[in-house]
Amino acid sequence: MTTIVLPSTDDLRKVAIDVLARMDVQLEEGGGVQARTPITGGRLFDLAATAPAAVDDTVQAAHEAFLSWRTVPAPRRGELVRRLGELLRVHKGDLAELITIETGKIRSEALGEVQEMIDICDFAVGLSRQLYGRTIASERPGHRLSETWHPLGVVGVISAFNFPAAVWSWNVAVALVCGDTVVWKPSELTPLTSLACDRLLARAIEETGAPRDVHRLLLAGRAIGERLVDDRRVALVSATGSVRMGREVGPRVAARFGRSLLELGGNNAAIVAPSADLDLAVSAVVFAAAGTAGQRCTTLRRLIVHTDVVDSVMQRLVATFRTLPIGDPFDAGTLVGPLISRQAYQTMRDALETARSEGGEILVGGGRRLADEAPDAFYVEPAIVGVSGQSGIVREETFAPILYLQTYRTFEEAIALNNDVPQGLSSSVFTRDVQEAERFTAADGSDCGIVNVNVGTSGAEIGGAFGGEKETGGGRESGSDSWRAYMRRATSTVNYSGHLTLAQDVTFS
Fold first, then answer.
1. Are residues 152 and 177 in contact, defined by beta-carbon separation less than 8 angstroms?
2. Known PANTHER family for this protein (predicted)?
3. Terminal alpha carbon distance of the chain
4. What b/e sequence results for 120-157 when a residue is b if at least 16 CB atoms lie within 10 Å of its CB, and e otherwise?
5. Which of 302, 299, 298 lies closest to 272 in space, CA to CA?
6. Residues forming the active site
7. Neighbouring residues of 343: CB distance < 8 A, sequence distance ≥ 6
8. Cα gap 247→287, rounded to integer Å
9. CA distances from 411 to 83, 268, 308, 424, 445 (A)
10. 419 φ, ψ to 5°?
11. 255-293 confidence digits (pLDDT tens)
């Protein structure tokens, strides 16, 4: 077996210092927030946290900036986002290095995340000239009936560790062109990435002359996020995280009649039909299940295979999983980096034990690697577990690389298994049968927000709205008409007839 040498925490700290310097990020050291790296499990910096008392002033500053920003023409607002996209292009490699250091993503995935940020900036700049309303035929002569869209207010963004930059960019790029301002509370697990993103946007703000407080950063833990959720000046809370978190955020925002956009857990499935191109299916399944060490909301967690091809699929997957390169995410040959924390590792172990207790069989993986070299880092072997249809663990999302293998005989049974979980984010079918492909994407097919054919569950494009149904929260971010969540609609009637005519032929004279 090839010897794997991990970088030291000191080496990673030096890389981070160099990158931050190139991006003109000044670290304010103190207490409250620790920057750590899952590559070694070591501590990089102790950073000053946002004081709870500062939240009120931060939101007020964003609100006051909104009052002027909303009157700036949308194409002018787009110039700010254009400049952000240009700075992201310049610092693509720098930001990707921070993402790898703080999340353990392999280099190509970290670069892909920054490219996603660049893409949404391009999308939003175009959107700034396409915030269309509509003209509606009025039943009254001499009247014009129309719909217009207006900026909403302060948008509170709460993001998770696994996409520490991209999810922020989805929200901030669209919110800014819509005329909103943003207060961002990122994951406390990725403070360096957050500071770098904030600094790039601050530079864009300075260079374009936008109001300084159109974007503010809150660097702290859960309590600060709760204050953001409860603040009546925050018109929209866009929160990405677990279903548990969404259950808390949604009702609290609704109680004050605010809006929420929830992007929560996924427990995603793929169906492999007898007619599938198995080479294509296996390649897609391996990336979707093992990419980002299973720490994507779109990670493939359930594989539903027809009994006629299950033996072939299983053999190919087991053989491939055994050869997956696990280790230093900066190494070009690595495909699986570390889990984010000890807690994530323990959650994976608990899920495997539950699967065993329910009669499941671990077909491959599940072990830990590099424990001697890095006792505080958690590198794991992606696992495949054969389970029965009665297994309860498959209904839960475990944020780790565990793929549960189930079988089916009829396509109706496969769809039922796909839908038989509380979550509804992403789904796939691998088939060359046109009827099966169309049925899967029809109203009585997959009940998820993302429904793919011959494509894995991971890797959404910017142009399509991203989000899911059921316990995934129902929100939509990024492309399509997701911009409407960041704006308010006004229906306007203009009477130019000189006479008062009531709707529905009502008379009142």
1. no
2. ALPHA-AMINOADIPIC SEMIALDEHYDE DEHYDROGENASE (PTHR43521)
3. 93
4. bbebbbebbeebeeeeeebebeebebeeebebbbbbbb
5. 302
6. 263
7. none
8. 30
9. 49, 17, 13, 19, 10
10. -85, -10
11. 999 999 999 999 999 999 999 999 999 999 999 999 999
